[in-house]
């Protein structure tokens, strides 16, 4: 059980993190540079910000085996694929649609965990994810009414979400035997290299961009990555993973509000209905997940003789 107390209230830091990651789609929309270039510099600048603090982990870096490097490369490749597809989706569909679909990340993780690790979820949790999937269908149906490009953007977001789910599942395996900070830095560098090779192969310019674009590249690294994702990772030492994962619900809401205020984007009634189903379904899934985790934690403190007297429903 976690007993450490955060120097700043966790709720305040969570709010800062949600606002920060909500700006990611806004910055991408503001940029006219190719998505692969935006992602490359986002990862490069983030790696440069993290590099000065990696020295305490040098021993863990030298202890990595060939198998670890192969998994790190696979994780970095899937992260690059996620950025390429999701950031590309914003060229075709709205911020709200793309981020609401990306919130389906737990669905892909649940499916992958069952296939690879035989991890089972409760019926209530699966039902919640089923409701969320219906919500995505509503969003896509609403986008069809706008244009075929919007549907293309939705599909790119779905595939990008599947890619990041694979990235996270590989990460789950690796952080069990290496520091998460080191894992993040190495994967960011590998994904950045993947993008550099992609841009070179596609003949995409590396440097021919106006100052505004370089500013956006830097903002993508600092705001949603450092004050968003890295902040959430840091919060894991003060609160549960389930609590931190609630940012999955916060990002679509924050991004939609910012897109309305800063980009003038509006959704149809069908899309709003789909969005509510997505957030409600995921909320149910996360709530049931937290209850299951609490029961498992509680069982750790029950004496074996007492455990034998528990009814079957407690297992």
TrEMBL record:
Transmembrane domains' residue ranges: 7-28, 40-57, 69-89, 95-116, 123-141, 153-170, 182-202, 214-232, 244-263, 269-288
Subcellular localization(s) per the UniProt record: Endomembrane system
Pfam families attached to this UniProt entry: EamA
InterPro entries hit by this protein: EamA_dom, EmrE-like
Source organism per UniProt: Paenibacillus rhizophilus
Cross-referenced SUPFAM superfamilies: Multidrug resistance efflux transporter EmrE
Domain EamA per the UniProt entry, residue ranges: 11-140, 152-283
Key word Heme present: no
Keyword Lipoprotein listed: no
A cellular-component GO term for this protein: membrane
Predominant subcellular localization, coarse grouping: membrane
Stated family: Belongs to the EamA transporter family.
Keywords, comma-separated and alphabetical: Membrane, Transmembrane, Transmembrane helix
Membrane topology label: Multi-pass membrane protein
UniProt protein name: DMT family transporter
